[in-house]
Amino acid sequence: MHSIDIELLNQQIYIDSAFVERLNAETAKVIVGQQYMIDRLMIGLLTKGHVLLEGLPGLAKTLAIKTLAKSIHANFSRIQFTPDLLPADIIGTMIFNPSQNEFSVRKGPIFANFILADEINRAPAKVQSALLEAMQERQVTIGNETFLLQEPFLVLATQNPIEQEGTYPLPEAQVDRFMLKVKIGYPSKDEEREIIRRNLGGDDYGLVSPVVHPADIIKARESVRKVYMDEKIERYIIDIVFATRNPADYQLRNLQPLIQYGGSPRASINLALAAKAQAFLKRRGYVIPEDVRQICHDVLRHRIGLTYEAEAENVTCEDIIDKILNVVEVP
């Protein structure tokens, strides 16, 4: 691609991504800090990817997706996952109508643009798989009818890292369906002071107004795919993912006994897509290595299987990704 093309593409992406600043300004009216989480939700939205959030209670996970839905003029559904939940509680069911002597479809809460699956690991496997099928196929079958889910469609699932009693952990193959797994930390002292002031000052949630239409998001998805990615960046992504599978090939022989399995081709695809979305959020028409590095942990942390040896040595997926990023040559 010629530099003149890059120049034109850059200008076009700068225009197409103008709404990002409007969205950030709108969500900032309610959410203090947590820009990292908002950016990851935006990346999921721009790439048709779903997000798994892991964080302690009270870190504004629900509030973030609710605020984002409100500022995008979209429908929002919250599903609280519990051990007695049934698939029909999520996707809907057939209801018998005695007056007309026929069955009619009653749609479940999955029929919305933004779905918050709260504490997904609390529900049994058949409920999890009903949700994951809807995420993958973007359609739901109730009785003999199949219904397409409306776009944009984003599932944000949360799991609580501290309570594991009585939970049903997501199987590795199903966790892989989430594009990103985002870990959320505590706010800083200044941010927490601002959170206290806002909450004592009254309910600010009503201040958010829709600044983006769903059609803008769908148009932006096409722009994200047009973001230019050089062959060197593609090779960089492939090297990172291959280093999770065969660390010995990248002078990381000491990682070999710690990794049970590495990232699949889905990891490579998602890393490339997320890097393009990251460039788009930065209002740039081309991907730089820093885009890949910034998003790498979120794409890979749930796609690397650790051995018992790694757990015994307290080695985390973060440590492994850090070592890989330090060794793989940056283009």
* Cross-sheet strand order for the largest sheet: 2-5-8-1-9
- Indicate the CATH class of the largest domain: Alpha Beta
Envelope shape: globular
- Write the CATH homologous superfamily of the largest domain: P-loop containing nucleotide triphosphate hydrolases
Tell me what the CATH architecture of the largest domain is.
3-Layer(aba) Sandwich
N- and C-termini, Cα separation: 17 Å
Low-confidence stretches: none
CATH fold-level topology of the largest domain: Rossmann fold
Q: What level of helicity do the residues show?
A: 40-55%
Number of domains: 2
Binned strand content = 5-15%
SSE run: HHHEHEHEEEHEEEHEHHHEHHEHH
Number of strands: 11
What does the average pLDDT come to? 84
Q: Helical region count? A: 14
Explain what this protein looks like in three dimensions.
- By secondary structure, the chain is of the alpha/beta class.
- The protein has helices spanning 3-16, 18-27, 35-46, 61-71, 87-91, 125-137, 172-175, 189-201, 214-226, 231-245, 265-281, 289-300, 308-312, 317-327, and strands at residues 51-54, 76-80, 92-97, 102-107, 114-118, 139-142, 145-148, 154-159, 180-183, 259-261, 305-306.
- The protein has a five-stranded parallel sheet. It has a two-stranded antiparallel ribbon with strand order 3-4. A two-stranded antiparallel sheet has the order 6-7.
- Helix 3 packs across helix 11 (265-281), helix 10 (231-245) crosses helix 11 and helix 12 (289-300) runs antiparallel to helix 14 (317-327).
- The two termini are 17 Å apart.
- The mean pLDDT is 84.
